[in-house]
Amino acid sequence: MDKKIIFDPARKKYVSYTPEEEVRQWMVDYLVNLLGYPISWVTLEKRIKYGRIYKRIDILVRERYGQPLILVECKASCYALQEAHLNQIALYNATLQAPFIMLTNGLSLFSFKLEKTKNRYIQIYNPPFFRQNI
Predict the structure, then answer these.
(1) How many angstroms separate the Cα of 97 from the Cα of each of 59, 68, 89?
(2) Phi first, then psi: what are they for 26, rounded to 5°?
(3) Helix (H, G, I), strand (E, B) or coil at 96
(4) CA geometry: angle at 103 spanning 114 and 11, to 5°?
(5) Which of 47, 43, 61, 55 is nearest to 100 (CA)?
(6) What pLDDT is attached to residue 113?
(7) Which pLDDT does position 49 carry in this prediction?
(8) Within a 10 A sphere around the Cβ of 41, how many other Cβ atoms?
(9) pLDDT per position in the chain (134 positions), as tens?
């Protein structure tokens, strides 16, 4: 049986196809081709340290000077997005402090802005588009 693969333009290689990888690649396409972020700003499956343990984030968009800008958590489309998924990405972002987080299953997409002074997330209805001055 042949293993299915999908091309990942951010990593510039073919990777194993999974339902979550399909959503991840859809999200990369959305970030680059609809929101306008340079592909060179997009990192996939990066390992981060949270306390004493390591976690793997799905997508991180960094701005031109390398600071985290958008953290994205992807779930396979067969999963309904739940508050636990939002808590998961918020936990990951406690280390990164990206001003925006996004959560998607390929069917739904939710965007949030970190309100640092109150240490909470506010849902936003327009995703953060790329601006040349970022």
Answers:
(1) 14, 7, 11
(2) -60, -40
(3) helix
(4) 105
(5) 61
(6) 95
(7) 82
(8) 19
(9) 578 998 999 998 899 999 999 999 999 999 999 999 999 999 998 888 877 888 889 999 999 899 999 999 999 999 999 999 999 999 899 889 999 999 999 999 999 999 977 788 999 998 889 985 45
Tokens matching residue 85: 């998924």
Distance CA 71, CA 1 (A): 35
Distance between CA atoms of 60 and 93, rounded to whole angstroms?
10
**DSSP codes of every residue in 32-71:** IIIS---GGGEEEEEEEEETTEEEEEEEEEE-TTS-EEEE
> In the chain, how many H helices and how many E strands?
2, 8
pTM equals: 0.91
Cβ–Cβ < 8 Å for 86, 75: no
